[in-house]
């Protein structure tokens, strides 16, 4: 969150963050409407997804939330892009291994978050990392640094959680 290296070790002098759970798929329903109803309009948010088959963990941090906030840039199909220079996405090989984390910082700050009505739950970039119903997608695009060696990942969501992040 502080733009530190992924392998950085925190010390007592570092700022601490609080994470307040606002959405859990197994409790609130894993779908776009439920996610958006619980998470939109919030600020500084973190989303975590556990993939069903592999138990890999994927996530993203947005300092502006997932929509309806900040400066926006309209593009084709009434899509709204939101600006943020400190968003990032990430992946863990599994829920037990924090050493093999990959982090992808936002490259195109003008298109950090995409909103297209109710078509997805959340969308970092234009599909760099997004949720659509019970499926998530990760694509190599020029909006975020890559978090995968693969060009495109599609996975089924086992669990999804979103948190409001406060300092």
TrEMBL record:
<dbReference type="InterPro" id="IPR006571">
    <property type="entry name" value="TLDc_dom"/>
</dbReference>
<protein>
    <recommendedName>
        <fullName>TLDc domain-containing protein</fullName>
    </recommendedName>
</protein>
<dbReference type="Pfam" id="PF07534">
    <property type="entry name" value="TLD"/>
</dbReference>
<feature type="domain" description="TLDc">
    <location>
        <begin position="1"/>
        <end position="166"/>
    </location>
</feature>
């Amino acid at each position: 969150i502080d733009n530190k290296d992924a392998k950085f070790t925190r010390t007592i002098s570092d700022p601490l963050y609080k994470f307040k759970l606002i959405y859990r798929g197994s409790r609130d329903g894993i779908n776009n409407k439920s996610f958006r109803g619980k998470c939109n309009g919030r600020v500084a948010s973190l989303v975590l997804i556990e993939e069903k088959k592999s138990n890999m963990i994927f996530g993203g941090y947005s300092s502006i939330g997932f929509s309806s906030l900040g400066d926006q840039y309209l593009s084709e199909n009434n899509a709204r892009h939101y600006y943020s220079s400190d968003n990032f996405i990430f992946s863990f090989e599994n829920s037990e291994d924090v050493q093999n984390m990959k982090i992808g910082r936002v490259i195109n700050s003008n298109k950090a978050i995409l909103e297209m009505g109710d078509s997805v739950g959340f969308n970092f970039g234009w599909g760099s990392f997004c949720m659509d119903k019970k499926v998530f997608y990760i694509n190599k695009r020029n909006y975020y640094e890559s978090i995968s060696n693969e060009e495109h990942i599609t996975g089924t969501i086992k669990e999804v959680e979103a948190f409001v992040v406060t300092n």
